[in-house]
Design goal:
By secondary structure, the chain is an alpha+beta fold. It has one domain: B-lactam Antibiotic, Isopenicillin N Synthase, Chain (Jelly Rolls, Sandwich). The chain is 23% helix and 19% strand. It has six helices and 16 strands. A hairpin with a 5-residue loop joins strand 10 and strand 11. Helix 1 packs across helix 4 and helix 2 crosses helix 4. The protein is globular, with a radius of gyration of 19 Å.
Length: 338
């Protein structure tokens, strides 16, 4: 699609896109939306969304659930310790997670691994979290050990926690599938191009808690500079500003919370799929506000057995394919293991 929303230069803010026409029956309206999305994805790699279809009361409920979980004593949170999971699901204590460089985007050696001043709780795709699947459907063969087997806090500790989180997960999953359709349109593909690749998607959701104070006077990143590794991320970031996005000039651009919006960013798999036409932009989280920050990112990827091969219409003589074809699950498993 032709450029128009942004000039081909650096960015100093994050664009906001109204998704009210995302499911319009009018193709012209969907194409206009796809044009805006294309500009945001190719120029910035991040954009705010409003009228996204996830109810504010549900967003509020899942943030309350996050606060309740992270308020539990450490020994109760550790009952769900991620170290007990082969599939990277469960609780991650403070400083337990390292961020590393991004495959295919820059040289990981240029950025040191750094423990995050944050704690998290992760869940992966399960049938009960998918509003498009019947509860008795079975998961496909788990070649890369990434599906199912979520760890949940005991019901007596947090009544309704699992139900609330899975309701939010289902809505974020639906929105992600819709966004992939508009991405396809933006890339001059059939809108249904990704449909058969999202039956049992590699979708992971996280609850994150970023304490308000530095350690020993040192400013500690809640999450160090990194890129995400799936296709896209939908972030519900609460009301405390801390997300920063790196522009082409090496300047950190703040992406403050805007009421009624969420933040979407392109991740590595989709960037590679588009031969880096869509940007997977480096970002970090540093909480300097003095307040507790809680966020709920939803990281969406395609089915693990899908082969990702650079799109033909994104390849040219002077821009060859950036990466050989690879399995989505193998790529994600490698990144998670790092």
């Amino acid at each position: 699609m032709a450029s128009g929303l942004f000039p081909a230069k650096d960015f100093d803010s994050i664009p906001l896109i109204d998704l009210s026409t995302l499911k319009s029956t009018n193709l012209d309206q969907r194409q206009k939306l796809a044009h805006l999305v294309y500009e945001a994805c190719t120029q910035v790699g991040f954009f705010y969304i409003k009228n996204h279809g996830i109810a504010e009361d549900l967003i509020h409920s899942v943030h309350e659930a996050a606060q309740q979980f992270f308020s539990l004593p450490d020994e109760q949170k550790m009952e769900c310790f991620m170290g007990k999971s082969k599939k990277f699901h469960g609780f991650t204590p403070m400083f337990a997670e390292l961020n590393t460089g991004a495959d295919g985007l820059d040289d990981p050696a240029d950025r040191s691994s750094q423990a995050g001043f944050s704690e998290g709780f992760d869940i992966g795709y399960e049938i009960l979290g998918d509003s498009q699947k019947a509860a008795d459907d079975s998961l496909p063969p788990d070649t890369y050990e990434l599906y199912g087997d979520n760890q949940w806090p005991r019901e007596d500790l947090l009544p309704g926690f699992r139900e609330t989180y899975l309701r939010y997960y289902a809505k974020a999953l639906e929105l992600s599938r819709d966004l992939m359709m508009i991405f396809a349109l933006a890339l001059d593909l059939e809108e249904t191009f990704f449909d058969d690749k999202m039956g049992y998607p590699g979708a992971m959701s996280r609850m994150m808690h970023y304490p308000p104070k530095p350690v020993n006077g040192e400013i500690m990143p809640g999450i160090a500079a990194h890129t995400d590794y799936e296709c896209l991320t939908i972030l519900s970031q609460g009301h405390v500003p801390a997300l920063q996005v790196l522009n082409k000039s090496g300047e950190w651009v703040l992406a403050p919370p805007i009421p009624g919006t969420m933040v979407v960013n392109i991740a590595d798999c989709l960037a590679i799929w588009t031969n880096h036409r869509f940007k997977s932009t480096i970002h970090r989280v540093i909480n300097l506000t003095g307040e507790e920050r809680y966020t709920v990112p939803f990281l969406f990827g395609v089915d693990h057995d899908v082969t990702i091969s650079v799109l033909e219409n994104c390849i040219s003589v002077d821009r060859p394919a950036c990466k050989a074809p690879f399995k989505a699950g193998e790529f994600v498993r490698q990144r998670l293991t790092q």
